[in-house]
Amino acid sequence: MGVRLQRLREERRMTQAALAKALGISPSYLNQMERNQRPLTVPILLRIGSVLNVDPQIFSEHDSASLVADVRDVFGELPDAPPTSMAELKMLVENMPDLARSILLLQRRYRVMAERADTLAARLDDGSRGDSTQALAPSTDEEVREYLNRRQNYIDELDRAAELVAGELDGQLRTRDALQARLLERHGIRVQLSDGDAGMVRKHRYDAQQKILWLPDTLTGGQRAFQMAAQISLLEHSALIDALVLAAQFSGAGAQSSARLALSNYFAGALLMPYQRFLQAAESRAYDIERLAQQFGVGFEAVCHRLSTLQRPEAAGLPFFFVRVDRAGNVSKRQSATDFHFSRVGGTCPLWIVYDAFSHPGQILTQVASMPDGCTYLWIARQVSTGAPGYRAPGKTFAVALGCDISQAHRLIYSKGLDLHDPQGATPIGTGCKVCERQACPQRAFPSLLAARPVPPNQATP
User: Fold this and answer.
1) What stretch of H or E contains 77?
2) How many angstroms separate the CA atoms of 153 and 309, rounded?
3) How far apart are CA 15 and CA 3, in angstroms?
4) How many CB atoms lie within 10 A of CB 10?
5) pLDDT digits (tens, 9 = 90+) for 65-114
6) How confident is the model at residue 345 (pLDDT cuts 50, 70, 90)?
7) Where is the HTH cro/C1-type domain (predicted)?
8) CA spacing 20 to 30 A to 368: which of 70, 105, 138, 319?
9) DSSP assignment of 334-387
10) pLDDT in tens, 254-270
C-alpha cells in the first residue's frame, strides 16, 4: 500500500514533509508507510482520503486480489512464457496496479484482434462479400464491470443520494405511486404505459419534448418502480453521475454510456432498497431473498444484486458475489464484493450449481463448493425469467447465483441442514477448464493451460 500512497502524493506534487504535516504525522512516519514498514491504520486512511480527496477504498486488498487472479489468467494463456510465482504476481499488482491493468488492456485488445482474424478467415472461407475491414469493438460492459469491482460494487455518493430520496418518499404513498407523483410534481413528467406487444424493445423510453416516460404494460409493479427510479437519477443527479463517469476515465463514448446506465440502475436499486433499512431487514431475516423481495416489492434478481453492494465502510453487510448466466454459459452479470475471481478465460465450470437451476425452475438450490486454491463457498442459485406474458411471447431465461465465503455461511438461512465444516461434502469446482488445475475432473472440456507449464515446487501456490 505504500507505493500507492507515494504515487498519490507525487501526482499532487507534494513533498513528504508537506503531506505529513497535512496528515498530522511526522515525516519519518510517512516515509516508513511509503516503504511498507508501517501499516496504514484506519484513522490514517480516513485522513488520507480527506486530504488527498480520494476514496480510501483505493487501498483495498480486494482490488489487489482480483487483479492478481486476472493477471494470473493472462499469463496462463501464454504457453511459452516462463512460470510466474504468486509472490511475483502479488508484488507486481500491489506495487504497480496501473501496470497490471495495462496488461489486462493489452490482453483485451489481443482478443479483439484474434476475433477479427477469425472473422476474416471465415469470410474468406465462405466467400462472403461483407466488409472484411470492419473492426470488432471491445466489450464496454467488461470495462464497466472492472470499475464496479474496483469500487467493491458500492458507490457511496449515489447510495447516500438515493437513501435521501427514499427518506423523502417514506410515509407517503406506496413506493411506485410516490415515484410517479414525484416525476409529475417536480419535473412535470407523466408516466404512460405502452402496449408491450407493439415492439417496444427497451424497458422504458423518455420523450423529453412531451415530458412522457413510456413504460411497457408488461412490466411488473417492481419493474415499473425501478425504471421510474432510474429516470429520477438522470433528472436529479445527472451531474453526480457525469462526475463519476469522468473520474473513472473510461476508454470511449460506448463505455461512458454503459457506465451511465449502470450508475442510474445502481441508484434505482438503492432507492427501492435504501441501505440502512435494507441491511437491517436482511440481517433480521437471515438474508432470506424471497422475503426481502416481498418486503421491498422487487424481484429475486434485484435483491441478489443489491445484496452484493452492501459495502458501506461503517456499516458493511455480508460480502457476497453475484453472477447471472444463460443456458449457453454466457455470463451477462458478475459482481464481487470480495476477492472471489470470475475467470476471463475458458468459460465457467459446468459443475457449478448455477447451471442446475435451469432444470429446477422456481426452486432455490444450494451448493457448498470448493475451489482449487482451497477456498470454500456457499452458493445459492435460482432460475429467473423475464418477458411479456402470453402464448409464445418472446422472453428471457437466466440463472442467478449468490455466493459467500464458507466462514460467513452460518449467517444465511440457506445454510440450515448443511454441514459447513465437512471438507468431503463440498463439490470441487473451478473457474474454467482452461485455467483450472483439477486434472482428474470428469467434466473437463479443454486441457488446462496452467497444467502445460508445471510450476517448480519452490513456486507452487500454497
Assistant:
1) none
2) 5
3) 15
4) 10
5) 677 777 877 777 766 667 777 788 887 877 777 788 888 888 877 777 87
6) low
7) 5-59
8) 70
9) EEESSS----SSS---TTSGGGGGGGSTT--EEEEEE-TTS-EEEEEEEEEEEE
10) 889 999 999 999 999 99
* Three-state DSSP string of 153-194: CCCHHHHHHHHHHHHHHCCCCCHHHHHHHHHHHHHCCEEEEE
- By the 8 A CB rule, do 225 and 176 touch? yes
Query: Are the C-beta atoms of 175 and 227 separated by less than 8 Å?
Result: no
The per-residue pLDDT for 63 is 57
Give the model confidence (pLDDT) of 378-388 as tens digits.
Answer: 999 999 987 76
Closest CA to 379 of 347, 352, 345, 402: 402
Q: Would you say residue 137 has pLDDT above 60? A: no
DSSP 79-140: TTSPP--HHHHHHHHHH-HHHHHHHHHHHHHHHHHHHHHHHHHHHHHHT--S-TTPPPPPPH
Tell me if the pTM is above 0.90: no
Three cell numbers written together for 303:
435483491
Alpha-carbon distance of 391 to 155, in angstroms, equals 41
